Amino acid sequence: MLGVTGSIAAYKAADLTSRLVEYGAEVFPVLTESAGRFIQPLTLQTLARNPAVSDLWAEEEGWQPGHIEIADRADLLLVAPATAHCIANFAHGQAPDLLTSIHLATRAPVLMAPAMNGKMFEHAATQANMATLRERGYRFVDPEVGRLACGYEGLGKLAPIESIIDGVVHLLG
Ligand SMILES: Cc1cc2nc3c(=O)[nH]c(=O)nc-3n(C[C@H](O)[C@H](O)[C@H](O)COP(=O)(O)O)c2cc1C
Asked: 63 CA to middle of ligand 1, Å?
């Protein structure tokens, strides 16, 4: 399961999807509403060769809520890029949308690759939320220092795709 959230780095999820498929993974993209402003679901679904979903309320097939079915099927929930908002939602068990509902309903390991403005990343709230998740066994592919889309240099640039894939391989064996 590849969660994609509303970071400017969401376009990199296309390359990530393509590389994961090349690697032999079966990828199911789940976009937040904000992610859909940065990248078209069609791009991810074509590269993943699986439907890209984002609507919690699109319940057209079968009787079982879609998010429960997806959650049960996942071997890994990878969120890349992961926004500060998504990290906060995960840490606090909030489930306002499809991705966050899947997150609560799955028992798959969770790997997150944060991407955000350096001040957002270093904010005490974001750091506390990440610490909470780490205590629960969540893994992070740490962002890098670099030129950020917001115009600043800082820590918050999405980790290279290669490092994210290494993280996936490490968790899935
Ligand atoms: C142009 C633009 C770029 C953004 N980039 C980021 C980002 O890289 N990281 C981040 O945490 N939030 C970023 N945001 C803010 C998020 O989109 C916002 O917090 C949103 O509520 C995230 O929703 P989601 O976590 O459900 O995807 C950006 C917003 C805009 C308008």
From this structure: 33
If one counts the domains in the chain, the total is 1
Ligand 1 nearest-atom number relative to CA 96: 26
| Alpha carbon distance, N-terminus to C-terminus of the chain | 16
Active site includes 86? no
Return the CATH number at 82.
Answer: 3.40.50.1950
Q: Where are the beta strands (DSSP E) in 40-117?
A: 77-82, 110-114
Separation CA 106–CA 101 (nearest Å): 9
Phi, psi dihedrals of residue 163, rounded to the nearest 5°:
-70, -35
Give pLDDT tens digits for 71-98.
Answer: 889 999 999 999 999 999 999 999 999 9
> Domain span at residue 103?
2-172
Mean pLDDT taken over the chain: 94
pLDDT at 119 exceeding the cut of 90: yes
Q: How far apart are alpha carbons 90 and 106 in whole angstroms?
A: 12
Kindly name the residue from 55, 150, 166, 170 that is annotated as catalytic: 150
CB of 34 within 6 A of ligand 1: the answer is yes
Burial of 145 (C-beta count, 10 Å sphere; 0-12/13-18/19+): exposed
